[in-house]
Design brief:
The chain is mostly beta strands. 9% of the residues lie in helices and 43% in strands. The strands form twelve sheets. An eight-stranded mixed β-sheet has the order 16-17-18-19-15-14-13-51, with no helix packed on it. Strands 20, 21, 22, 29, 30, 31 and 34 form a seven-stranded mixed β-sheet that branches. Strands 7, 8, 9, 11 and 12 form a five-stranded antiparallel β-sheet that branches. A hairpin with a 3-residue loop joins strand 47 and strand 48. It starts with a helix and ends with a strand.
Length: 879
């Protein structure tokens, strides 16, 4: 605020400040413009500005945010430039801007000599106005000052600079001022808050065999030195009491370990506060002033579990808390919930909500229902009643949904337009065995002996050549008939869907994560055409050697399979209560076209074919007998296999061109923002085509009459490749927009198959690819363990390890090499990691061998454990 920094008095209702008035009027009358100015990139100081000052009236480092004492005279004008972040906010404003009562007066800067020579003439309502630009002696401002009513008269009346009365500040000047001042106000305000809260403690309660202790490190950017570390505990009565002695802290730089603090009590506390007081950087204790104060709240959360007790007959759903194990009975039901009621039961978005899913499919209940867990007033304790089978919690109904006969539309249409081309070729040749009459010794009867083999040039003949076109269009509807057809595929089915996750929002809406796949193999509904595999009989007639299913005998290339790997068509988030789609990974229309071509037999691996690939017509010619005419006998047709060519001499070479390859087109299968996230992970969007190849094989008799067959494969076209979204989860509870987390798998050039994590704030928010991890030799993908809006646990099955991935901020994913621990860790809101075996929170600890999981002593252990059943867990805040 220039008037404030230039001692320009402007009492309210007596003499307003022009700039202050313009900012307030813009805030009220033009909120969009004001927001644009306020949301511009902030201009904050460098952290080095926070150093102690020599001024006794303002010795603390934060004083330099106002006045860093770097601008004292016009000679220091260089520090006033907008690129100078080491300057205080007040001195920057004082030396760079004018106010109503200080128009080139009282202060040496700004001065009229700093203005550009030629003014800018711009139209204003009803007239034209001259504006003067300041481009030196500090920050450059285009509309720095304008001429007043007396400007021309004063300029003509006297030589030298125009006095103060000749200048004015108007709306265009104020807007340029605000463009420089408001971002700096935001940046310096944020720096002040960051400075006061820069102290961080990374501590937790552990029991490593030496008793309960507070351990951790200094997570601040400044060193701690000469302070104390103390632990307090919150009791059930709301009072905070000492839980340890105060332990002295020597010098601990950023990341250094803090001294362990033995915990003395009280038992059963669920929330603790660790407090450091003392020196933090330049903040030091002086007299009654304690110096810096850093606090870290530990605990304050209780974990509860809902699980299916398989030891009961029938299995019954139960709730576990630190205070007991409870049966669950709906208010409108007569008996506790069992597996027959719900196949799955889990926590909803609200801390008191449960949602159950029955069995789905033809003739099944196809039902989702949500309930509220009753709690005591102003408490998190469960309301329960004693019963013969144990304490029972009576659940209050929230919402219920039964899949209608017509199903729920996903507003998605799939259009297929495909052609399959099939050809079968045979290689045929004539072979004549020559027998010559020979009388080896006079007087001894003669005989026919082999004299050689003659072969004719082979020929290629088409035994089959056909093309089958297929087109289909179908809508994707969530109905009972198409539910999870992997278990019971039907030939007429085009797609299959399943409900992978259910939840209930805090508003009481039942929602579910749905996966839709194309029908079971071969792929959608390929043409139902039986394709014979032909051969030749002994007479040379074409016969059927085998009758296959739809093109099953031929290696028909199906490039569309790469466009939709893993059978996936789309993921969707559906609001069953409202009957609408909240988000889906595909567009409203998925269009798939393609041409698949192939041949039988498999010429790509002809030496491995169990069937004959070459047919020869053999003759025997007897010649040279003076007592008989030369004669040729037809010995019939027979088959032979190709063999590896030894590159010895050959009689003839025959060329055989394969009809192999195909092309594919697809659109709408993946939204643009998700494609962008996959590109962030480096996944290929297209499989490049491969060049033509030729392989040479041998057939016929070994020796000089052997023949070769050169099998050529044409160049293939590029194929669109959509990396698979192999796993998905809804981050819970959502903070504003629905957040979906995906595991994507694809091909990265020069690295092969990789997996990565995608985060999508559906449906309007951004999508981000967060990590890419090489797969193990088994090519097992990463698997989502659990996810909140801020944290995801990802299991790497190939390496028996995994990742803890922050979903907010810039913190990188942490690879956890614990061979079995991460599989038992759940991410609970907002950033808690809970080990279900130990029933304790766990923290990531960096060791020489890598990041490992270190259990803490919080929260309270669930009744009946550890280790407890592996159900669904959530964290609830302790009031």
């Amino acid at each position: 605020m220039p008037a404030h920094a230039r001692n320009d008095v402007h009492p309210p209702r007596i003499r307003s400040d022009w700039y202050e008035q313009w900012v307030e009027e813009t805030r009220v009358a033009r909120p969009d413009r004001f927001a644009a100015l306020l949301n511009a990139a902030p201009r904050g100081p460098e952290p080095s500005i926070f150093t102690a000052t020599p001024t006794s009236r303002a010795p603390v480092p934060v004083a330099r945010l106002i006045d860093a004492d770097v601008f004292r005279a016009p000679a220091d004008a260089g520090v006033l430039a907008d690129e100078g972040p080491g300057i205080g906010a007040a001195e920057y404003t004082n030396g760079n801007f004018l106010s109503r009562g200080t128009l080139f007066r009282r202060f040496e800067l700004p001065r009229s000599a700093s203005l550009d020579v030629g003014p800018i003439v711009e139209e204003t309502p009803g007239t034209f106005r001259r504006y003067f630009t300041k481009s030196r002696d500090g920050a450059a401002i285009t509309h720095f000052v304008t001429d007043g009513m007396l400007f021309d008269a004063l300029a003509a009346a006297q030589a030298g600079p125009v006095p103060s009365a000749g200048w004015m500040l108007d709306a265009r000047v104020h807007e340029d001022y605000a463009g420089a001042l408001l971002p700096r106000a935001v940046g310096y305000g944020a720096a002040l808050l960051d400075y006061f809260f820069r102290g961080r403690l990374d501590v937790d309660l552990v029991d490593d065999g030496d008793g309960l202790r507070l351990v951790g490190t200094n997570a601040s950017t400044d060193a701690l030195d000469g302070g104390t570390l103390t632990l307090y505990a919150d009791g059930d009565d709301g009072l905070r009491r000492l839980a340890s002695e105060s332990i002295a802290v020597g010098r601990a730089g950023p990341g250094d370990a803090l001294p362990a603090v033995p915990v003395t009590g009280p038992a059963g506390a669920e929330r603790f506060v660790a407090v450091y007081t003392g020196t933090l950087g330049e903040e030091r204790p002086v007299g009654a002033f304690p110096g810096a104060v850093i606090g870290k709240v530990l605990g304050g959360a209780r974990v509860e579990e809902v699980f299916l007790d398989g030891g009961d007959t029938p299995p019954r759903w139960k709730l576990r808390t630190p205070k007991g194990v409870f049966l669950l009975t709906p208010a409108d039901g007569a008996s506790p919930l069992t597996a027959d009621d719900f196949e799955a039961l889990r926590w909803g978005d609200g801390q008191d909500q449960l949602v159950g899913r029955s069995a789905f499919g033809p003739g099944r209940p196809n039902r989702v229902a949500a309930y509220a867990v009753p709690r005591l007033p102003s408490s998190i304790e469960i309301v329960a009643e004693d019963a013969p089978g144990g304490p029972v919690v009576t659940l209050r109904p929230i919402a219920s949904f039964t899949l209608p006969q017509a199903g729920v539309s996903l507003d998605t249409t799939v259009s297929l337009d495909q052609t399959l081309e099939y050809r079968q070729q045979s290689v045929e040749y004539e072979r004549t065995v020559v027998l010559q009459w020979t009388v080896p010794i006079p007087g001894v009867p003669g005989a026919y002996v082999p004299a050689g083999i003659e072969v004719a040039s082979p020929r290629i003949r088409n035994l089959a050549n056909r093309a089958v076109a297929f087109a289909d269009t179908f809508a994707v509807v969530l109905d009972a008939a198409h539910y999870d057809l992997r278990q019971s595929p039907t030939e007429a089915a085009t797609y299959s869907w399943r409900l992978t996750e259910t939840s209930v929002t805090t508003a009481g809406h039942l929602i579910g994560v749905v996966r839709v796949d194309h029908a079971p193999p071969p792929f959608f509904r390929w043409p139902r055409v039986a394709q014979p595999l032909y051969g030749l009989d002994r007479t040379g007639e074409q016969i059927v050697r085998e009758t296959c299913g739809p093109f099953a005998c031929s290696p028909v290339t199906v490039p569309l399979m790469r466009s939709f790997p893993e059978g996936l068509l789309l993921w969707a988030l559906v609001d069953f209560t409202a009957g609408r789609v909240l988000a889906k990974t595909a567009e409203d229309r998925i269009t798939i076209g393609g041409r698949g071509v192939g041949e039988a037999p498999n010429w790509a691996r002809p030496t491995q074919s169990p069937e004959p690939l070459v047919y020869r017509h053999t003759f025997e010619r007897r010649q040279g007998n003076p007592d008989a005419l030369d004669a040729t006998t037809d010995l019939g047709w027979s088959g032979e296999s190709l063999r590896t060519w030894d590159e010895e001499v050959f009689a003839t070479r025959t060329e055989l061109a394969q009809n192999f390859g195909g092309s594919a087109t697809s659109s709408g299968g993946l939204r643009a923002e998700l494609q962008g996230a996959l590109r962030q992970l480096g996944f290929l969007q297209t499989v490049p085509g491969q060049g033509p190849t030729t392989a040479v094989f041998a057939f016929g008799d070994v020796g000089p009459t052997q023949m070769t067959l050169a099998v050529s494969t044409p160049a293939s076209s590029p194929i669109p490749l959509a990396a698979s979204l192999a796993d998905a989860a809804r981050a819970r509870p959502p903070a504003g927009a629905e957040r979906l987390v995906f595991i994507g798998a694809g091909i990265v050039p020069s690295q092969g198959e990789l997996s990565g994590l995608l985060v999508w704030d559906a449906p309007e928010g951004p999508a981000r690819g967060l990590l890419a991890s090489p797969l193990g030799p088994e090519f097992a993908r990463l698997v989502l363990g659990s996810a909140t809006t801020e944290l995801a646990v990802v299991n790497d099955l190939a390496r028996a390890a995994g990742y803890v991935v922050p979903l907010e901020g810039t913190e990188p994913p942490r690879f956890v090499s614990d061979p079995d621990g991460l599989a038992f860790v759940r991410a609970l809101a907002p950033r808690l990691l809970y080990d279900v075996r130990r029933e304790r929170f766990t923290r990531l600890q960096l060791t020489p061998s890598g990041v490992v999981l270190e259990p803490t002593t919080l929260p309270l252990v669930l009744q009946g454990g550890p280790p407890g059943p592996l159900g669904d867990y959530h964290a609830i805040s302790v009031p």
